[in-house]
Amino acid sequence: MEKSIRVLVANHPRLMREIILTTFADQPDIEIVGEVADESEISESVKKTLPHFVVIALDQPGRRPPICDQLLRDYPEVRIIAVAPANNYIAYYWATLDIHSSDIEASEEGMLNALRSTMVADRTN
Q1: pTM of the model
Q2: In contact, 61 and 85? CB cutoff 8 Å
Q3: 89-93 vs 79-84, strand pairing mode
Q4: Residue 14: its pLDDT value, please?
Q5: Which residue, 29, 18, 82, 79, is CA-closest to 50?
Q6: Structural domain boundaries in the chain
Q7: pLDDT value for 36
Q8: How would you write the pLDDT of the chain (125 residues) with one tens digit per residue?
């Protein structure tokens, strides 16, 4: 089977990285494309290895690590799995952009109605 899921493991401490690497090593569809010990090297490693997933440490469960914002802004196609071993907690982060459309009447009135309905929807949300 071809390894189709590319993973960069950037978790600390070292013992946690080793556990994650061992877990993924037995999976025939997962390829470890790199290992990062220092958080400051993650972005450059993502640029070089182009992983589908980055596994990082989660120091405070329930609070998104700042590195997530940077990675998802620079590499929106990357998915992030954040592991907090001390709390038995894992979070999954990804970026999306949804584009919606709707046909409107091809007239001035149609355009004005669309503008107004958008404003009403924005005020109620």
Answers
A1: 0.76
A2: no
A3: antiparallel
A4: 85
A5: 79
A6: 5-93
A7: 94
A8: 567 899 999 977 888 889 899 999 889 999 999 999 998 999 999 999 999 999 998 888 888 999 999 999 999 999 999 998 778 889 999 998 877 777 777 777 888 788 777 554 544 44
- 5-93 CATH fold: Rossmann fold (3.40.50)
CA distances from 70 to 61, 90, 118 (A): 18, 19, 31
The residue with tokens 């709390």 is 87
- DSSP for 60-113 reads STTS--HHHHHHHHH-TT-EEEEEEGGGTEEEEE------------SSHHHHHH
Judge whether 55 and 20 are in contact, CB under 8 Å. Answer: yes
Long-range contacts of 2-6 (CB under 8 A, 24+ apart): 2/29, 3/28, 3/29, 3/30, 3/31, 4/29, 4/31, 5/29, 5/30, 5/31, 5/52, 5/53, 6/31, 6/33, 6/49, 6/50, 6/51, 6/52, 6/53
